[in-house]
Each structure stands twice: as structure tokens, then as C-alpha cells.
Specification:
The protein is mainly alpha-helical and about 400 residues long. The protein contains 15 helices and no strands. Helix 2 runs antiparallel to helix 11 and helix 7 crosses helix 8.
Length: about 400
């Protein structure tokens, strides 16, 4: 049993390491793309603040990973190990290909797949039908209102591609209504349901926040000298990048914390789910090391291929993404930091018009987002069945 736990801890730290390897782009892509910091300076700063992040917020995200996805009765050491193997594999392959994906969702998919293979569909903590219906109704109402409003604005401005604005308006409406329901307590979503919903909500919230912040800055500084603006926001962007890195570390570093603590509980080494201090430290160190070594193909995709960035836009993207991460972390939702910063970059790009964003690259990224949970769940499901045949679990 001790060897399995040690292997599990190693795998969890390896997961956080490849998480940092892929998600290095989240913290440093914009600050490198705008040439505010050199790549080495950026990764050193991001690694440090990724380490600080888990100590700023509570470990509520770790509890969601360890207790809110799979029924504790089915969360055995073997289920956790197989799930993590699938997640590590998918994150590593995506990093090698330069595709920014969600390491959090890869882990969630891995745990779901291996748990279903072990205990059936009931092993997963699915939401109640009442909560599901309430969320669908709220999302539908918000989507319709958002689509109508943005479509009317686009037509009034004489935009030819108003159908695209209609679809974007629907997304924005959904992404504003759902968090409002969470904040007010009308929609008390938790666990896997919250994770699935925020696949859509978190990038759109990032887009909205960064877009409006960008428009405000454009309005306030419209008569300012461009050189002075670049100088000012190149300094401010260092703070916004640090803020985003803290949010990144506070959310993503807790993935390994949740898994390691669940392993210790499953092995009988802990009597209740409380994250030990040493787990917080080693999890933060692992993701910081991955960030330091960096995933430069992902950085190039995030920082250069979605849209061209100026220092004020980098500041808006990082600040918008950081606000989104702080919000979801406070509610214990393990979201994709990649989704948040991708949406924010799209938002600041959209301040220059719809055509300023390379939507072909965006579609490729979104496809990876959608496929992550099903693919890792399928891999983990097949992996656990193979493990059962080989070892008779």
C-alpha cells in the first residue's frame, strides 16, 4: 500500500509539473508577446507567484477535486492512479503539439473514466435533475436575451457579420446569468456540474472582462501619446502578470493537492479530508518548476497566433483573466486557466473589431477544450479495465 501511495504522490506531482509546462503560456504569453519581459524574466516571475498562489486562497478547489467528482467510496488508490496517468499523458501530448488545453479538465476526465470503470456510472457525483433543469432554464433565458441585445447592437452599427454577433451575444448572456445565480445562491452548483458549466462560462467571462476593460482604457487614453502609453502599461503589465500568476497557482496547483490528500485518505493515512501543509508546498513547487521550464510552443500559440497584442492589451487580458480566476477559486470551482486567459486575449483583440481575432486558431483551441474530458475519460476507462485484467482488481 505504501508503494502505491508513493507512486500516486509522484504521479500527482508529475501532473502538476506538466500542468505548469502547458500552462506556462497562461502566465507569461502576453507579457512575452508585448516584449515587456524577456522569456527568462517572465518564467521566473510566473514560477514564484504560482508558488505564492495556493497560500493566498483556501484549499477549497482541492476539496472539489478530492471529494466533489467521484463518490469517496469508489475513489480508491488504483482509480486515482489510472486517472492521473491518463491526464498526464494528454497534457504532455498537448504541450508537445503546442495546443493550450485544460490540465484541470484532463484530471477530471481521468478520474471520471477510471471511477466508472471501477464502480459504474453511479460512482460519479452527478447533479440532481432539479438543479440541472434550473441551470438549463437560466442559461436559456440569459442566452436569448444576450443574443437579442448584441444582434440589435450589431445591426444598428451596420455590421455585416451580425449572425456571429448573435452567437457571441448568446454566450455572453449565459456567462453572465450563471455566475449571477451562483453568487445569489439561486444556482448552488458544485462538483462536476460546476466544472462542466464553467468550460463555457470562464473563457466568456474572461472575454467580457478584458473587452470592457480594454474599451475603457481606449476611451480614457484616446488622446494620449502612444509611446507614453506603451511605457505606462509595460510597467503595469508586470503587476497584472503577477496577479494572474497568483490566480493560476491558487486554482491549478490545487489539483495535485486534492489528489494527494484523497490518496492519503483512501490509504487510511488521514482520517478526514484536510490538506496538509507539506502537500501545499510540494504541489506549488511542482507547478512552479513546470512553469519555469516552460512550454514555448504553447506560449507562441497564446501570445502571437490568436491576435497581436500591445502592452495595454496584455494588461487588460491578464487583469480580466485574473479576476475570473479569483472569482471561481473563491467558489471552489477547478476551472481551466487556459480557458480564462484565452477568452481574455480574444476580448482585447475584439476591441479592434471582429476580424482582429484569428478565429481559425480559436476554433482549434476550443475543439481541444471540448475533447479533453471525453478523451481522458475514455483513456482512463480503458486503462482501468486493462489494469483490472492484469492485476485482478
Amino acid at each position: 500500500m505504501e508503494n502505491i501511495v508513493i507512486a500516486g504522490i509522484f504521479l500527482a506531482l508529475l501532473f502538476n509539473f506538466v500542468n505548469g509546462l502547458n500552462d506556462a503560456a497562461n502566465s507569461i504569453a502576453t507579457v512575452v508577446a508585448t516584449r515587456v519581459l524577456t522569456p527568462l524574466q517572465a518564467v521566473l516571475m510566473a514560477a514564484f507567484f504560482n508558488m505564492v498562489g495556493p497560500f493566498v486562497f483556501t484549499t477549497v478547489v482541492a476539496k472539489t477535486i478530492g471529494k466533489g467528482i467521484v463518490d469517496s467510496g469508489f475513489l480508491t488508490t488504483e482509480v486515482i492512479l489510472v486517472g492521473m496517468c491518463a491526464a498526464v499523458f494528454w497534457v504532455f501530448i498537448s504541450s508537445y503539439a503546442g495546443i493550450p488545453i485544460s490540465a484541470s479538465h484532463a484530471l477530471v476526465g481521468g478520474l471520471i473514466g477510471s471511477a466508472i470503470a471501477f464502480g459504474g456510472i453511479s460512482a460519479v457525483l452527478w447533479p440532481s435533475s432539479e438543479l440541472f433543469i434550473r441551470a438549463v432554464l437560466m442559461a436559456t433565458a440569459g442566452g436569448i436575451c444576450g443574443a437579442i441585445i448584441l444582434s440589435m447592437i450589431a445591426r444598428k452599427k451596420g455590421e455585416e457579420n451580425w449572425p456571429e454577433y448573435t452567437a457571441l451575444g448568446a454566450l455572453c448572456g449565459i456567462s453572465l446569468v450563471i455566475p449571477a445565480g451562483v453568487i445569489t445562491g439561486i444556482l448552488p452548483i458544485t462538483g462536476i456540474w460546476a466544472i462542466l458549466i464553467f468550460i463555457v462560462v470562464s473563457p466568456t467571462l474572461g472575454l467580457i472582462a478584458a473587452y470592457f476593460l480594454g474599451m475603457v482604457i481606449i476611451r480614457l487614453f484616446r488622446d494620449s501619446n502612444s509611446k507614453w502609453m506603451n511605457f505606462l502599461f509595460s510597467k503595469l503589465q508586470i503587476f497584472s502578470a503577477a496577479f494572474y500568476s497568483i490566480g493560476h497557482g491558487s486554482n491549478d496547483a490545487q489539483n495535485a493537492m486534492g489528489v494527494i490528500t484523497a490518496l492519503l485518505v483512501a490509504a487510511g493515512l488521514l482520517s478526514e479530508f484536510i490538506v496538509p501543509a507539506w502537500v501545499i508546498v510540494i504541489s506549488g513547487l511542482a507547478i512552479a518548476l513546470g512553469t519555469f521550464l516552460g512550454g514555448w510552443k504553447v506560449v507562441e500559440t497564446m501570445g502571437k497566433k490568436i491576435t497581436r497584442l500591445r502592452p495595454y492589451q496584455g494588461f487588460c487580458a491578464e487583469t480580466g483573466g485574473g479576476v475570473v480566476l479569483s472569482f471561481v477559486t473563491a467558489f471552489g470551482v477547478p476551472v481551466s486557466t487556459t480557458h480564462a486567459i484565452s477568452g481574455s486575449i480574444m476580448g482585447v483583440g475584439a476591441t479592434r473589431g471582429y476580424s482582429a481575432v484569428q478565429w481559425g486558431i480559436v476554433r482549434r483551441i476550443v475543439a481541444a477544450w471540448i475533447l479533453t474530458i471525453p478523451l481522458t475519460a475514455s483513456c482512463a476507462f480503458a486503462g482501468f479495465l486493462a489494469y483490472r485484467v492484469l492485476f485482478g482488481v
